[in-house]
Here is the input.
Amino acid sequence: MKIGITNLKGGVGKTTVSQNLAVCFAHMGYKVCIVDTDTNQNSLAWNGVRDEELPNILVVGATDSNALTKTVDTLHKDHEIVIIDGTPSLSKMTTRIILSSDLLLIPILPSGHDFRSMTQFFERFEQAKEFRNDIPAYFLLNQYSNNLNVHSDMKGILAQFDIPILESTIRNRVAYNKTGIEGKGVYEYQDIKAKAEMVRLTKELLDKAEALNFLQN
Ligand SMILES: Nc1ncnc2c1ncn2[C@@H]1O[C@H](COP(=O)(O)OP(=O)(O)OP(=O)(O)O)[C@@H](O)[C@H]1O
Ligand SMILES: [Mg+2]
Here is the structure.
């Protein structure tokens, strides 16, 4: 399965979600890799400081949009799960990510500012659908709190897009920041709530993948 993690907005958690999903999948026994499409190469740097005792996750840099599909498909031949860590730019790369993925995950922060970039993203997504009209995509609410009205309002606002919201949400937790710096995922860290929410997200994605028949190479 090829999972594209994308959104035109910077700092919404694309890299955090890519790394944490990769770590969860690896601990569940899947052979997984990350394709880092961002010129800042955060996932490559994260892998550079990752402890060798931890499950190995190959991270490959791919900043040339013309080569993306080929890189992803080549890796997919011997990795059950390829995660594409997206770039925030409104560039050809975003369209390439959309078209190279079996399933798209769109992390979003529950704020109005993000919503505007969402509208731009949605336009790009609709354009890509002219080439492939069956692209399963899901919003993922990051740094989300159920008990904040302004956050739960976001669910209503997002309902106007033709993209469902995953049931799993991610809270704002220091664990994400810390593990990002240490080359780990929260699965490998002492915050059990962070670990539990990430496992829940991973399982929700596996359920979707199974329903869509994406898990055989
Ligand atoms: N749920 C969370 N709780 C706490 N911190 C978070 C959470 N999600 C992301 N962050 C932090 O927010 C910052 C931005 O996250 P991240 O780098 O994953 O975003 P991004 O979408 O990949 O950004 P860019 O577009 O610049 O690549 C990082 O410092 C990360 O540690
Ligand atoms: Mg990033």
